[in-house]
Q: What sequence folds into this?
């Protein structure tokens, strides 16, 4: 499955605004999924920089049964995140043309954030490209 590019419909001035706007869009999708009895697992990489039409985030999602537990959701979310990292590596030149670079990541389950480094200092993305 190809990742979803989250592109703003208005200018967003700060990285915090970009994260909040992206979370709101993903929250709506999670709410829609719950109406049909499923829960949404989403892995998201937020970007910083770029102009108005640049993506604010790249996300991969998976719909799972409402009975899925947090451990399975974390495992699925981690695999989605690994796929996003590989996608970014493969499309680094295109993202550079938009003037964006990865800033943070998170994994959510049913709209609730499970894993996140939003606002953390240091390494932006974990090295998840090599398998054990």
A:
């Amino acid at each position: 499955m190809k990742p979803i590019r989250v592109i703003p419909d208005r200018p967003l001035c700060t990285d915090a605004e970009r994260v909040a706007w992206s979370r709101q869009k993903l929250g709506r999708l999670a709410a829609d999924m719950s109406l049909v009895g499923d829960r949404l697992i989403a892995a998201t990489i937020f970007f910083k920089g770029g102009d108005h039409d640049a993506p604010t985030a790249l996300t991969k999602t998976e719909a799972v049964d409402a009975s899925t537990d947090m451990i399975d959701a974390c495992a699925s979310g981690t695999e989605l995140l690994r796929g996003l990292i590989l996608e970014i590596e493969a499309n680094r030149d295109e993202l550079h043309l938009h003037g964006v670079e990865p800033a943070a990541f998170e994994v959510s389950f049913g709209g609730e954030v499970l894993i996140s480094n939003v606002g953390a200092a240091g390494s932006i993305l974990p090295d998840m490209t090599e398998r054990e």
